[in-house]
Amino acid sequence: MIEGVVNASHEALVTLVLHGPTGQTRDVNAVIDTGYSGSLTLPPELVAELELPYVFSGKATLADDSEVGFRVHRVTALWDSRLRHIEADAVGSTPLVGMALLRAHSLYVEVTDGGRVIIQAND
Question: Which residues are CB-neighbours of 40 under 8 A, at least 6 positions away?
């Protein structure tokens, strides 16, 4: 089980421990984004800091129908007490957890300042 908290802006946050390929680690607060179908976004600055390996280039269509390109990198994250290899989109300034990473999990959010966020694997 992964636990987090809802902040004053009504964002559901969880803390992820990220591991770079040469042993670097970094705790990051990530916002749960149910409108994002990918796994994880990370700011390009964090990708560079962790020296994450490049995998491929991606494209996404935004809500205004504009298209944006980005680089996709491989990161290892502690997810539900296990290390998991994830493809992370290097885009934006706030780490986001998307629906692909939540696959096969249940999400519970108390939408109030300080509310609980619980992500639990479906058995």
Answer: 16, 30, 75, 77, 86, 87, 88, 89, 95, 96, 97, 98, 101
Task: State both tokens at 70.
Answer: 């980005």
Write out the two tokens for 65: 């129908």
Report pLDDT digits (tens) over 85-113.
Answer: 999 999 999 999 999 999 999 999 999 99
Q: Give CA–CA dist 75/99, Å, rounded.
A: 17
Lookup: tokens for 59: 């494209």
pTM of the model: 0.92
**Main-chain phi, psi angles of 29, to 5 degrees:** -90, 125
Yes or no: say if 19 and 79 are a contact pair by the CB < 8 Å rule: no
